[in-house]
Amino acid sequence: MIDEDGIGFLKMLYIITSIIFGYLFFAFFRIFKNKSYLIFSFIFLIISLIYLGKMFLYFDDFLG
User: What is the pTM of this model?
Assistant: First the structure.
Protein backbone atom coordinates (compact mmCIF):
# COMPACT_ATOMS: atom_id res chain seq x y z
CA MET A 1 0.00 0.00 0.00
CA ILE A 2 1.02 3.62 -0.45
CA ASP A 3 2.19 5.26 2.76
CA GLU A 4 2.70 8.95 3.46
CA ASP A 5 6.39 8.86 2.52
CA GLY A 6 5.52 7.45 -0.91
CA ILE A 7 2.86 10.09 -1.48
CA GLY A 8 5.30 12.83 -0.48
CA PHE A 9 7.92 11.39 -2.83
CA LEU A 10 5.45 11.32 -5.73
CA LYS A 11 4.40 14.90 -5.02
CA MET A 12 8.05 15.98 -4.97
CA LEU A 13 8.68 14.25 -8.30
CA TYR A 14 5.59 15.88 -9.78
CA ILE A 15 6.74 19.33 -8.65
CA ILE A 16 10.24 18.76 -10.08
CA THR A 17 8.88 17.62 -13.44
CA SER A 18 6.46 20.54 -13.54
CA ILE A 19 9.31 23.00 -12.96
CA ILE A 20 11.43 21.29 -15.62
CA PHE A 21 8.59 21.33 -18.15
CA GLY A 22 7.90 24.99 -17.39
CA TYR A 23 11.52 25.90 -18.02
CA LEU A 24 11.46 23.72 -21.13
CA PHE A 25 8.55 25.69 -22.58
CA PHE A 26 10.37 28.91 -21.72
CA ALA A 27 13.46 27.63 -23.55
CA PHE A 28 11.37 26.70 -26.59
CA PHE A 29 9.91 30.21 -26.69
CA ARG A 30 13.41 31.63 -26.56
CA ILE A 31 14.53 29.50 -29.53
CA PHE A 32 12.91 31.95 -31.92
CA LYS A 33 15.25 34.66 -30.63
CA ASN A 34 18.39 32.62 -30.03
CA LYS A 35 19.23 29.27 -31.62
CA SER A 36 21.66 28.29 -28.86
CA TYR A 37 18.66 27.58 -26.60
CA LEU A 38 17.82 24.60 -28.83
CA ILE A 39 20.61 22.52 -27.28
CA PHE A 40 19.56 23.41 -23.72
CA SER A 41 15.91 22.70 -24.48
CA PHE A 42 16.79 19.22 -25.80
CA ILE A 43 18.85 18.55 -22.67
CA PHE A 44 15.98 19.61 -20.41
CA LEU A 45 13.56 17.56 -22.51
CA ILE A 46 15.65 14.43 -21.97
CA ILE A 47 15.96 15.11 -18.24
CA SER A 48 12.24 15.76 -17.85
CA LEU A 49 11.35 12.59 -19.77
CA ILE A 50 13.67 10.59 -17.51
CA TYR A 51 11.99 12.08 -14.41
CA LEU A 52 8.53 11.34 -15.81
CA GLY A 53 9.53 7.77 -16.66
CA LYS A 54 10.90 7.20 -13.17
CA MET A 55 7.79 8.72 -11.63
CA PHE A 56 5.39 6.51 -13.59
CA LEU A 57 7.48 3.36 -13.07
CA TYR A 58 7.77 4.06 -9.34
CA PHE A 59 4.03 4.71 -9.10
CA ASP A 60 3.23 1.46 -10.94
CA ASP A 61 5.56 -0.47 -8.62
CA PHE A 62 3.84 1.09 -5.62
CA LEU A 63 0.38 0.11 -6.83
CA GLY A 64 1.49 -3.31 -8.04
Answer: 0.43
* pLDDT one digit per residue (tens) for the chain, 64 residues: 567 777 777 778 777 877 777 777 777 777 666 666 677 777 777 877 787 777 777 766 655 5
Taking the domains of the chain in order of start, what are their residue ranges? Answer: 23-64
Q: Is 21 exposed, middle or buried (0-12, 13-18, 19+ CB in 10 A)?
A: middle
Cα separation of 53 and 31, whole Å? 26
Answer yes or no: are the C-beta atoms of 59 and 31 closer than 8 Å. no
Tell me if 24 sits within 8 A of 49, measured CB to CB.
no
